[in-house]
Predict the 3D structure of the following.
Amino acid sequence: MTLTYFRGLGRHLLLRLALAATISLTLGAHSAQAQELQVTIDNFTFTPPDLTVKVGDTVTWTNHDDIPHTVVSAGKFRSKTMDTDNSFSFTFTAAGDYKYFCSLHPHMTGMIKVE
């Protein structure tokens, strides 16, 4: 076997290793687990009021007040009226800023930033 043969084999091996590394990194990025995050409603406030999540994450709002509340992001999502200890969940499928409020108490506001 000649030196040229081994040089060609080396390039071929490097290309295969580079391809394997690229596939591994891509699969690792896509297999990241979506998270489930919580926002509590208590004393007429959303806590936390601002939350940053990733595309694919689910946020659940739970009402701990003793009066009803809603969660509304105009044109994006709307919960039913939630009594004490009721919850509403939404999975974010697109990046962007989602301002939301309680339609029964519009001074209650929050923001979900989806990256």
About this structure: DSSP finds one helix and nine strands in the chain.
